[in-house]
Design brief:
7-stranded parallel sheet; 5-stranded parallel sheet; Rossmann fold; alpha/beta; 2 domains
Length: 332
């Protein structure tokens, strides 16, 4: 099959141990993101199979209408809010994703550890001002800021799923007090694991020294962290977001940081990615920004791409697996 892999920013896919699974196919890899549908369609005009790296490129009705030869999309990871599944079905394109496994596993399990690790790395770097101190040291300055220890601080976990639970465990190991908030399921899991529940949403934001967001982005959660929530945070508090930028009300974080509540933020996700260098968040001295590295490390990539390549090979062999929209198979 003619396979196209999009958005391999680091030119990492060819280096993976699982890449030889695509031997025998004609593979084209692009290392940048093209958002214009016409330009993207030109890249994909000969593609029979498309491998997507998480949510980096959107698959829309307009794009699919320009790709009559496309037969299957293999998604890395279980979520696909960037794909118009109904349009795929209308155009006869099968969507394969781990979420459709006959014996489903939690798709977040593949990347939860790497994202949780990065989250806590951002907490530590922010609380001890590591990026600022490294920059100052290289400029010839010695000890320019005064950071804070994690021990005794309150770590607020908003969304107590797989990743939130792991971050809470890291915080507990460092002597932090864990405070949970979220929906009923999150609060039940936190209680079962022996963590405290905030008395109210308001109390959660007022009490936590660090608030870490661990929610899936959906219509229900989009913009759920409001400017009013942020205004309740301490001037010394830190907001960490390694989940999705859309969880925070548009414009609220920038305005809140400029107003001093919270005093700090550590971000791995942005409304528009790759993030533009003129994004005002990058210019704030009280913000640490990383380029969506949460799941971007070798072990996660091996897990994600191995499954994605298996899905392509199974489809090519006439024995498709993990198909989200099986109605298309009868029309193939």
């Amino acid at each position: 099959m003619k396979i196209v892999i999009l958005d391999d920013y680091q030119d990492a896919v060819r280096t993976l141990d699982c890449f030889p699974k695509l031997a025998g196919h004609e593979v084209t890899i692009y290392h940048d993101t093209v958002k214009d549908p016409a330009a993207l369609a030109e890249r994909l005009k000969d593609a029979e199979a498309l491998v997507l790296i998480r949510e980096r490129s959107k698959i829309t009705e307009e794009l699919l209408a320009r790709l009559p030869g496309l037969r299957v999309i293999s998604q890395t990871g279980g979520g696909f809010p960037h794909i118009d599944v109904a349009a795929c079905t209308r155009h006869g394109v099968a969507l394969a994703a781990p979420v459709a496994m006959k014996e489903p596993v939690n798709p977040g399990k593949q990347t939860s550890s790497s994202t949780a690790e990065l989250t806590f790395a951002l907490v530590m770097a922010s609380m001890r001002h590591l990026p600022q101190e490294v920059t100052a040291l290289k400029a010839g300055h010695w000890q320019t800021t005064l950071g804070r220890s994690l021990s005794g601080q309150t770590l607020g976990i908003y969304g107590f799923g797989l990743i939130g639970s792991q971050v809470a465990g890291y915080g507990r190991a460092f002597g932090m007090n864990i405070l949970a908030w979220g929906r009923e399921g999150s609060l039940n899991r936190a209680t079962e694991q022996g963590y405290a529940i905030a008395a109210s949403r308001e109390s959660f934001f007022e009490t936590a020294d660090v608030v870490s967001l661990h929610l899936k982005l959906s219509d229900d959660t989009r913009g759920m962290v409001t400017r009013a929530d942020l205004d309740r945070m301490k001037p010394s508090a830190l907001l960490v977001n390694t989940s999705r930028a859309g969880l925070v009300e548009p414009g609220a974080l920038l305005a809140a940081l400029k107003a001093g509540r919270p005093g700090f933020a550590a971000l791995d996700v942005y409304e528009d990615e790759p993030v533009s260098p003129d994004n005002p968040l990058l210019a704030l001295p009280n913000v640490i920004c990383t380029p969506h590295l949460g799941y971007v490390e070798k072990t996660s990539y091996e897990n994600l791409f191995s499954t994605a390549f298996d899905q392509v090979n199974a489809f090519a062999a006439g024995q498709p697996i993990n198909i989200v929209n099986p109605a298309v198979l009868g029309n193939a």
